[in-house]
UniProtKB/TrEMBL annotation:
<protein>
    <recommendedName>
        <fullName>VCBS repeat-containing protein</fullName>
    </recommendedName>
</protein>
<keyword id="KW-0732">Signal</keyword>
<dbReference type="InterPro" id="IPR013517">
    <property type="entry name" value="FG-GAP"/>
</dbReference>
<dbReference type="Pfam" id="PF13517">
    <property type="entry name" value="FG-GAP_3"/>
</dbReference>
<dbReference type="InterPro" id="IPR028994">
    <property type="entry name" value="Integrin_alpha_N"/>
</dbReference>
Length: 73
């Protein structure tokens, strides 16, 4: 969310979602916000894939051998 506090991103294999937990800055994180992915997400990476200087989320989905890309907006 571009607030300079490190957040957490997790692959939720059982629910076919990726979760984003935003850092509150006080040593805790908000409840995860989930986004639907392909079947069986296994790993995530954060990188700027579209050269807009904002972090995007890439998810490797084992179940269908596909990659999901979530662009920062």
């Amino acid at each position: 969310n571009s607030d300079t506090k490190p957040d957490i991103i997790v692959a939720n294999k059982g629910s076919a979602t990726v979760g984003v937990l935003l850092n509150t800055g006080s040593g805790t994180f908000l409840t995860q916000i989930t986004y639907a992915t392909g079947t069986q997400p296994e790993s995530v990476a954060v990188v700027d894939v579209n050269n807009d200087n904002k972090p995007d989320i890439i998810v490797a989905n084992y179940g269908l051998n596909i990659v999901s890309v979530f662009l920062h907006s």
